[in-house]
Write a structure and sequence with these properties.
Helix content is 39%, strand content 22%. By secondary structure, it is α/β, with parallel strands linked by helices. The protein has two domains: 3-108 and 275-289, Nucleotidyltransferase, domain 5 (2-Layer Sandwich); 122-270, ATPase, nucleotide binding domain (Nucleotidyltransferase, domain 5), CATH 3.30.420.40. It has a five-stranded mixed β-sheet with strand order 3-2-1-4-7, with helices on both faces. The chain is globular and about 60 Å long. It comes from Granulicatella balaenopterae.
């Protein structure tokens, strides 16, 4: 079944034709400023596609808390005009085809479980380490949304007595912020810069990397024992860092040396899909919903 899939982000909207997990006819346009321009762009893409392909439906990956029952995207995001009204109904009016919408992190998880590094797993967790920490919980092959659409919002977890959150401690973006705050008045470094310094043995960079890795490893330990997935996947830009998994495994080993009462060791993998993950996951969600 061929579907037109869209991945709506704060800076750009990607699209493609998805069939059995394969993306064809890739395209991208800057995220419009207004909702009227947004609709115009979507319709223009749709009309250009249906001239050449038979499309059975349209599937969206979007930021925010997507309410599958009402077709409303709750919460807030970098695309404010998509929230708090029945946008699914509007999409179906525009395209005159069945439409589904799912949260972007949930789409990425569905892509991995159905076609990627969690293929064959019924239960999985996805951690997206970006500007903050997002994520998704897959139970019995489907997204667990939670009673208030907060399923997978791991970034809110409190990590210490100061109530620093997982998002505050467990991303390289905030690692860089902490590092730069310690040396004011000089050119600010990125997370990638600081990881490179840590690889070279720079003391302060090593300290900040340790905070980041420890937070991720502890969260993985907690999530493994709270939800007991078959696999925990890590996505986001930092997943390209070659030492990420070895450092997490080393920190997990330290935890298990201290907490000897458990032998439930998590299986941790990197996501297979990068730029196409949300488009593929939107396709999977359409098949599940329709």
């Amino acid at each position: 079944m061929k579907l037109l899939t869209f991945d709506v982000g704060g800076t750009s909207v990607k699209y493609g034709i998805c069939d059995n997990g394969q993306i064809d006819h890739h395209g991208i346009f800057p995220t419009p400023i207004t909702i009227e321009e947004f609709y115009e762009q979507l319709v223009a893409v749709f009309e250009s596609i249906i001239c050449q392909h038979i499309i059975k439906g349209v599937a969206f990956s979007c930021p925010g808390a997507v309410n599958q029952k009402t077709g409303i995207i709750e919460g807030c995001s970098a695309v404010p005009y998509i929230h708090d009204f029945p946008i699914k109904d509007k999409f179906e009016e525009l395209f005159q085809l069945p439409v589904t919408i799912e949260n972007d992190a949930n789409c990425a998880a569905l892509a991995e479980v159905n076609f990627g590094n969690a293929k064959g797993c019924e239960n999985a967790i996805l951690l997206v380490l970006g500007t903050g920490v997002g994520g998704s919980i897959i139970i019995n092959g489907k997204v667990y949304h939670g009673s208030h659409l907060f399923g997978g919002e791991f970034g809110f977890m409190a990590m210490n007595d100061e109530l620093d959150t997982f998002s505050a401690l467990g991303t390289v973006v905030n690692m860089a912020k902490r590092y730069n705050d310690r040396i004011p008045g000089v050119a600010e470094l990125s997370g990638k810069d600081i990881l490179a310094l840590a690889d070279q043995g720079a003391e302060m960079a090593l300290e900040e990397r340790k905070i980041f890795i420890k937070s991720v490893a502890r969260s993985i330990f907690n999530l493994q024992h709270a939800i007991d997935p078959e696999v925990i996947l890590i996505g986001g830009g930092v997943s390209n860092y070659p030492l990420l998994l070895p450092l997490i495994q080393e920190e997990l080993d330290t935890i298990y040396q201290k907490l000897t009462h458990t032998t439930l060791y998590p299986t941790v993998k990197l996501c297979q899909f990068k730029n196409d993950a949300n488009l593929i996951g939107a396709y999977v969600n359409f098949l599940q919903q329709k």
